[in-house]
Design goal:
- The protein has one domain.
- 0% of the residues lie in helices and 41% in strands.
- The chain is built from no helices and seven strands.
- Strands 3-2-1-5-4 form a five-stranded mixed β-sheet, with no helix packed on it. A two-stranded antiparallel sheet has the order 6-7.
- A hairpin with a 3-residue loop joins β1 and β2.
- The radius of gyration is 16 Å and the shape is flat.
Length: 95
């Protein structure tokens, strides 16, 4: 007898760790050498306190799939400024 399952299919996307989140964006390092960006970012929706996994469309030219970005206790709750090609500066933001 054949069993029928009504479960949703499980999709596995690449998972990245957010290095910083502020009231406007969260940021993660790009692992692809073919990409010209050191860091990519997406909107945080003002949520800086909650740990979560966000599924987004990749901004990277070297990756064309959706990605999961993990925001957890290791994610800095600070604004990230990018200086030059390889410079990252973390700053406190006003709440």
């Amino acid at each position: 007898m054949e069993q029928i399952s009504n479960q949703e299919p499980q999709y596995i996307f690449p998972k990245y760790h957010a290095i910083s989140v502020d009231p406007t964006h969260f940021f993660y390092l790009c692992p692809h050498k073919a990409c010209n960006s050191l860091v990519h970012f997406h909107g945080s929706g003002g949520d800086t306190k909650r740990n979560r996994i966000e599924n987004r469309c990749s901004h990277c030219t070297a990756e064309s799939t959706n990605i999961d970005i993990c925001i957890d206790k290791g994610t800095l709750r600070k604004h990230l400024s990018i200086r030059g090609k390889n410079g990252l500066i973390f700053k406190k933001y006003k709440v």
